[in-house]
């Protein structure tokens, strides 16, 4: 029976009926998910089952089913969309496709229980939400190829970002408002506090994923930076008003002093003479210069 058996040729290659191969995936682990390189690492058992009429035994009824189990560990591409980052969820596909045979020769389809997974799969930044399976036949150069696809939905855990991004940024904004209670004359203290808060916001933003579009967290960080920058603008405005007021008051004092001095110089003097009798009987004349008051 095995003399003319060629495992490289599909069982139904010479017939009009295509060979149906059932696919099942057992997920062992999802090790990592990278937002920068847009990929994820995963280990799976790939199970393939089909029937080969050429292996039929006379003493065994029916057509035997063959099953091939393969362990695959690798890095798979995932088109990451960070528009709602870090409150986002990612859908990462796994596509299994026929390479050498068209759909006229080989057809892939899922088991009834297409995907199974270990119960204790733990990811550091994501939670495994749901898995959807469907067929995805494709066409290349006018020929149809059979394929099946599995979409893995990963929900990002935002607890880390709540403690490391959102809460510190709120505290930095509140810290920038402390400058409102610092005296206007304490210019070095208020400038140092303002620059410190601006640098803190800039440092936080530098650790975020860099993409060409605005993320949800970028809107939050820009809003916080605007509040911090507004505190600096408020200090500059108040400082300018304070200096203008000081110059105005100094000018008023100078004008008042000059007017007083001019008045003193221009007022006429009134001489009052008092005649007193001394003990010797002689008359003493005393003159007092008084300012005429109006």
UniProtKB/TrEMBL annotation:
It is a multi-pass membrane protein. The keyword Signal applies. It is found in: Cell membrane; Membrane. The chain crosses the membrane at residues 160-182, 219-240. Residues 165-251 form the Neurotransmitter-gated ion-channel transmembrane domain. GO terms for molecular function: extracellular ligand-gated monoatomic ion channel activity; transmembrane signaling receptor activity. It holds the Pfam family Neur_chan_memb. Residues 2-59, 68-156 form the Neurotransmitter-gated ion-channel ligand-binding domain. One of its GO terms (cellular component) is plasma membrane. Gene3D superfamilies: Neurotransmitter-gated ion-channel ligand-binding domain, Neurotransmitter-gated ion-channel transmembrane domain. Keywords: Cell membrane, Ion channel, Ion transport, Membrane, Signal, Transmembrane, Transmembrane helix, Transport. This is Uncharacterized protein.
């Amino acid at each position: 029976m095995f003399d003319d058996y060629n495992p490289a040729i599909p069982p139904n290659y010479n017939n009009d009926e295509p060979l149906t191969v059932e696919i099942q995936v057992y997920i062992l682990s999802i090790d990592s998910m990278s937002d920068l390189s847009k990929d994820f690492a995963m280990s799976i058992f790939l199970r393939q089952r089909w029937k080969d009429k050429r292996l039929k035994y006379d003493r065994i009824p029916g057509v035997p089913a063959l099953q091939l189990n393969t362990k695959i560990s690798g890095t798979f591409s995932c088109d990451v969309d960070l528009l709602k980052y870090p409150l986002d969820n990612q859908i990462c596909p796994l596509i299994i496709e026929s390479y050498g045979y068209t759909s006229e020769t080989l057809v892939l389809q899922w088991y009834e229980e297409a995907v199974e997974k270990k119960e204790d799969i733990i990811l550091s930044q994501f939670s495994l939400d749901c898995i959807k399976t469907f067929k995805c036949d494709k066409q290349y150069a006018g020929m149809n190829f059979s394929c099946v696809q599995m979409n893995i939905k990963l929900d990002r855990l935002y607890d880390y970002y709540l403690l490391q991004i959102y809460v510190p940024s709120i505290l930095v904004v509140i810290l920038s408002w402390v400058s409102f209670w610092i005296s206007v004359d304490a210019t070095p203290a208020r400038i140092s506090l303002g620059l410190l808060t601006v640098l803190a916001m800039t440092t936080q933003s530098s650790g975020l994923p860099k993409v060409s579009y605005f993320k949800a967290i970028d809107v939050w960080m820009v809003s916080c930076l605007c509040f911090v920058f507004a505190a600096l603008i408020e200090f500059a405005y108040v400082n300018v008003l304070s200096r203008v007021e000081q110059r105005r008051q100094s000018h008023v004092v100078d004008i008042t002093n000059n007017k007083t001095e001019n008045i003193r110089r221009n007022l006429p003097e009134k001489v009052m003479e008092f005649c007193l009798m001394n003990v010797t009987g002689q008359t003493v004349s005393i003159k007092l210069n008084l300012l005429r008051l109006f």
